[in-house]
Write a structure and sequence with these properties.
The chain has a two-stranded parallel sheet with strand order 1-2. By secondary structure, the chain is mostly helical. The chain has two domains: about 60 residues, no CATH class; about 100 residues, no CATH class. The N and C termini lie far apart (about 75 Å). Helices cover about 65% and strands about 5% of the residues. About 5% of the residues are buried. The chain has eleven helices and two strands; from the N terminus they run H-H-H-H-H-H-E-H-H-H-H-E-H.
Length: about 180
């Protein structure tokens, strides 16, 4: 079986610059040729990336803030938004205290917070089950999640990278008590 696999890769091994016999007992030499070939191809690409970053001084930032920059270059390292982060970011502009409008606005914000928690809980339980329950026959529609909601509201589906951005991140909630007049024909 190993011989068939090795023979199937002959063209690729030769393309990496290996010129010796392609046999299992020369595995170490073959691997060294592949690694050398990969490094020789990869180094110029990485140098071009570094030169491009240097144009804007970002190469220095990489040295000064490696953990912050890691999130930009390592797949899956962006911290996803969760309900707690989004709820803390809500900044509703309420009507006067004690008014009927303010009571209505507070109920709406409480419902929004509950919905965000429910979306997060649904996503954690079993995403496939909740998809089937919610969508029945609509297979092309994604079920709502906190991440999708955040992207819809703010344009981004992750927690801001910088500490200052994170602490200043706000979702302003404005209430339109006259909306029924605007949309009724």
């Amino acid at each position: 079986m190993q011989k068939k696999t090795l023979m199937a890769l002959t063209d690729r091994i030769i393309a990496c610059g290996y010129s010796g016999p392609i046999k299992a007992d020369h595995k170490k030499d073959i691997l060294e040729a592949i690694v050398l070939h990969s490094w020789l191809r990869l180094l110029p690409i990485l140098q071009q990336l570094r030169d491009g970053l240097a144009l804007y001084g970002l190469d220095e930032l990489l040295v000064e803030q490696p953990l912050l920059c890691q999130q930009l270059f390592v797949p899956g390292s962006l911290q996803g938004v969760d309900a707690d982060f989004l709820i803390l970011a809500l900044s509703p502009e309420y009507s006067a205290e004690g008014s009927v409008r303010r009571q209505c606005e507070m109920r709406i914000v409480n419902l929004l917070q509950d919905d965000l928690q429910e979306l997060e809980d649904k996503g954690e339980e079993n995403p496939k089950e909740s998809q089937e329950e919610d969508l029945n026959t609509c297979s092309d529609i994604k079920p709502p999640t906190v991440k999708i909601f955040c992207q819809w509201v703010t344009g981004q589906a992750h927690i801001p990278l910088g500490e200052a951005e994170r602490s200043n991140f706000r979702v302003t909630v404005l209430f339109d008590h006259e909306c029924h007049l605007k949309y009724v024909s």
